[in-house]
Write a structure and sequence with these properties.
The chain is mostly helical. The chain has a domain at 6-71. It has five helices and no strands. The chain has helices spanning 6-20, 30-42, 51-80, 87-93, 109-112. Helix 1 (6-20) runs parallel beside helix 3. The termini are far apart. It comes from Rotaria socialis. This is Protein FMC1 homolog. InterPro entries: FMC1_homologue. Belongs to the FMC1 family.
Length: 115
């Protein structure tokens, strides 16, 4: 996995926040204020190889990955979630055919052995 720069992770986080909250401005959200505060307080610099900065950048990129995955999951679920399918429909999706059902009159077990 290629490491991302702190600025690209920050921009990615802001982009995901704006996509997920298209009804209103993301700048009023508490999560935006928290992200902005964390970036200003820690100022992750990728040029230095400090463990705390690398850890903060890792947490930020993990959160970015979470936001991207949640958005993609919503899209996939809206496309493919059609509710419960019948056995016949599920078999047709994978290319199988169910056997034909033959209606026979019900016979008790003792009469079946006589035939």
């Amino acid at each position: 996995m290629a490491t991302k720069s702190a600025l690209s992770v920050y921009k990615g986080l802001l982009r995901e926040l704006s996509i997920n909250n298209s009804k209103f401005s993301y700048r009023s959200l508490p999560v935006y204020l928290k992200i902005k505060d964390e970036y200003r307080r820690h100022r992750p610099i990728t040029a230095k190889h400090c463990k705390p900065n690398d850890e903060i950048l890792f947490v930020a990129s993990t959160y970015l990955s979470y936001l991207e995955s949640a958005r993609k999951r919503k899209i996939i679920q809206s496309i493919y979630s059609k509710g419960e399918r019948s056995v016949q429909q599920a078999a047709n999706i994978v290319g199988l055919a169910l056997p034909e059902i033959i209606d026979r009159p019900y016979l008790p077990i003792d009469q079946r052995s006589q035939q």
